[in-house]
């Protein structure tokens, strides 16, 4: 069966395949990049709102959401390692309409997301340094991400995000442990349940923990890591498993903090500002130093959601341009590898950094926001459906295809995201 490597069909992996678990764990990395990239303020907000409203009865939702993200990311990695093609190349197999949709969404994503995430980062910095300029923090956050990706390479990005994950681990999980050790007396339920009034919060958690276009960047990151064929599938599964276990623990820790501090207090939180409110409540209980530590952890979560997309989405755009230039035909094998110096990579890096700064200064155009929301609502169900098709196709060996259990899981994920996407569109139109 003839396959095509995503950027360099003549190159083979020189990395040595590890044999035991200890050596395999040393290779864990790309999963942390994609998981840390996807865990941003939105996940923490939904976890804190759920903890404030329902205690720990919705911990199971975080676990389910992390599992959904694991399934999709594992599918993307398995498709690439088994076929030698990125998910975007597989996406293109369904027709030019799909590729065009992806391109338009990616362009709009750069504008809206670039503005939103740098604004969230700025909000956290203003909470840490009251009286400072929101716009200055937002612009400097975007530029820092720009410079790190422009001058860095994949391994630099991975190492940097691992440091931020370490910071998050110490601050967020440490805060949860300290709260439980010093209080732990709040009377909330622990048994998994669906409390009255929790339905839309459950959907919000599943949508936040389980959805991100950056999942599609995983193939480029495992390529950069040196994983080039199906021999690496077991390593890839371990990589993704460890990453989503850790990020799931982060979200659960935030829920614990919110439950212990605010459950039953009558205080409600909403939006990204809720994280600052949660930090204030934490500081009121344990002092300013504790508040600072918590905010540093939240900042780490948000900044990973700048660096990761700045790098991964630029790769996506470069691959999109390559497919369009080749008119969907197989590459000749003489192309230069796609890397961080590629002109289309750097164009998108510029696009996601600087034009969004204008949206920070002016109100976001309603038409752009509505179009972005509509395209975004359809993205995850289409991604899951494309993966379901590709992982049952003849483009990969039968041993790497989905079985009945995986097909059932993908089917349920598609139904979930169709419902989530439909609800989002309904709210946009009528809400």
Automatic annotation (TrEMBL):
Keyword Membrane annotated: yes
One Pfam family this sequence matches: Nramp
Transmembrane portions of the chain: 27-51, 57-81, 102-128, 134-151, 163-182, 202-221, 242-269, 289-310, 345-362, 368-390, 410-430
Keyword set includes Transmembrane: yes
Superkingdom of the source species: Bacteria
One GO cellular component term: plasma membrane
Gene Ontology biological-process annotations: iron ion transmembrane transport
UniProt GO molecular function: cadmium ion transmembrane transporter activity; manganese ion transmembrane transporter activity
Topological type in the membrane: Multi-pass membrane protein
Subcellular location: Membrane
Broad class of the protein's primary localization: membrane
Keywords: Membrane, Transmembrane, Transmembrane helix
PANTHER family per record: METAL ION TRANSPORT PROTEIN (PTHR11706:SF3), SOLUTE CARRIER PROTEIN FAMILY 11 MEMBER (PTHR11706)
Name of the featured protein: Manganese transport protein MntH
């Amino acid at each position: 069966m003839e396959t095509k490597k995503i950027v360099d069909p003549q190159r083979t992996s020189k990395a040595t395949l590890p044999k035991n678990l200890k050596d395999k764990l040393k290779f864990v990395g790309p999963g942390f990049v994609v998981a840390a990239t996807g865990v941003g303020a939105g996940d923490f907000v939904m976890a804190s709102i759920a903890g404030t409203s329902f205690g720990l009865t919705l911990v199971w939702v975080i676990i389910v959401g992390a599992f959904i993200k694991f399934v999709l990311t594992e599918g993307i990695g398995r498709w690439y390692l088994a076929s030698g093609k990125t998910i975007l190349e597989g996406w293109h197999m369904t027709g030019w309409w799909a590729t065009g949709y992806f391109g338009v969404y990616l362009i709009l994503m750069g504008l809206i997301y670039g503005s939103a995430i740098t604004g969230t980062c700025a909000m956290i910095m203003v909470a840490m340094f009251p009286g400072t300029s929101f716009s200055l923090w937002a612009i400097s956050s975007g530029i820092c991400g720009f410079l790190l990706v422009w001058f860095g390479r994949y391994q630099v990005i991975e190492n940097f995000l691992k440091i931020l994950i370490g910071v998050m681990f110490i601050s967020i999980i440490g805060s949860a442990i300290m709260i439980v050790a010093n209080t732990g007396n709040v009377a909330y339920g622990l048994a998994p349940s669906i409390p009255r009034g929790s339905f839309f919060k459950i959907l919000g958690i599943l949508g936040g923990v389980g959805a991100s276009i950056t999942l599609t960047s995983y193939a480029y990151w495992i390529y950069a890591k040196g994983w080039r064929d199906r021999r690496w599938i077991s390593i890839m599964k371990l990589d993704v498993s460890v990453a989503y276990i850790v990020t799931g623990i982060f979200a659960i820790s935030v829920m614990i903090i919110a439950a212990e501090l605010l459950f039953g207090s009558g205080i409600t939180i909403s939006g990204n500002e809720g994280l600052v409110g949660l930090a204030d409540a934490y500081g009121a209980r344990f002092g300013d130093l504790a508040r600072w530590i918590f905010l540093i952890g939240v900042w780490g979560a948000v900044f990973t959601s700048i660096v990761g997309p700045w790098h991964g989405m630029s790769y996506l755009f470069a691959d999109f341009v390559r497919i369009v230039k080749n008119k969907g035909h197989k590459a000749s094998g003489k192309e230069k590898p796609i890397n961080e110096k590629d002109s289309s990579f750097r164009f998108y890096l510029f696009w996601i950094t600087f034009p969004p700064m204008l949206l920070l200064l002016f109100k976001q155009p309603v038409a752009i926001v509505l179009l972005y929301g509509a395209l975004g609502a359809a993205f995850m169900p289409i991604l899951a459906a494309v993966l379901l098709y590709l992982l049952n196709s003849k483009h990969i060996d039968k041993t790497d295809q989905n079985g009945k259990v995986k097909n059932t899981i993908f089917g349920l994920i598609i139904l979930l995201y169709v419902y989530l996407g439909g609800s989002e569109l309904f709210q946009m139109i009528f809400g």
